[in-house]
Amino acid sequence: MNASPHPPAADALSISSVTVRFQGLAAISDCTLSLAPREIVGLVGPNGAGKTTLVNVLTGFQKPTEGSLHIEGRDALGWSPAKVRGAGVARTFQAGRLFGNLSVLENAQVSAIASGLGKRAARVRAEAILEEVGLSQAHDQQAASLPYTDQRRLDIARALCSQPKFMLLDEPAAGMSDSECEDLMAIIRSLPERYGCGVLLIEHNMHVVMSLSDRLHVLDGGRTIITGLPEEVSRHEAFLKAYLGEEIAA
Ligand SMILES: Nc1ncnc2c1ncn2[C@@H]1O[C@H](COP(=O)(O)OP(=O)(O)O)[C@@H](O)[C@H]1O
Ligand SMILES: [Mg+2]
């Protein structure tokens, strides 16, 4: 897992040899990961493994202590979150960050406008995406008044409205029922083809992540322990240990 000898791919979102320390404690150690256009990579690992920290690095919210960040071949280390977003990297948040006082439609529209669309085009795009995520009935509702799972859907819609090349989804299905989760899986599965974007999916439900991901990247204690095809990874002893360990502890 040392520095890749290859230059960063011209069409990928990638980090190389990233370490993040908080007061001396390493949340991420020497991590290298690349997300290609139109691929779904599952980022998995027990609580505290460093998954959200990695997403923070990939989106400019956290500057790594060491290592590099490239967006489509451009050195993006030290870029602000807004600049990273402008370069086509969108994310959702574990705890949601919607404009609670704005309507559902306004939340989506603001994101489309921020990505450079005019007001009218932004509205058209927002309406289309809200329809696809199943929120068209809720246009005029205040975002804060939505049920929790609809807020998560709106968070995804908001991210999609910025016309991203890469979508980073931090536990989007958390708190959803099985059927809500099925709906969400269908949306996530459609992202590469429908919107042309690569997806990094953080998800605890192994069934969900195994069935959606082209590749898995497994973190434990801030380190990459395995990467590979889902069927390869699931047979790996270190993977089973990380997960069974967590279930026993839970
Ligand atoms: N801002 C921060 N300051 C100090 N420690 C942090 C901070 N953010 C995360 N950590 C620590 O880094 C580790 C990884 O956290 P996190 O990335 O949230 O893991 P995950 O998303 O996999 O559950 C944890 O030990 C967490 O307590
Ligand atoms: Mg997390």
From TrEMBL:
Pfam families recorded: ABC_tran
SMART domains with a match to the protein in the record: AAA
ABC transporter domain ranges (all copies): 13-246
Keywords: ATP-binding, Nucleotide-binding, Transport
One of the record's GO molecular function terms: ATP binding
InterPro entries per record: AAA+_ATPase, ABC_AA/LPS_Transport, ABC_transporter-like_ATP-bd, P-loop_NTPase
Top-rank taxon, per record: Bacteria
Gene3D superfamilies, per database record: P-loop containing nucleotide triphosphate hydrolases
Protein name as it appears in the record: ABC transporter ATP-binding protein
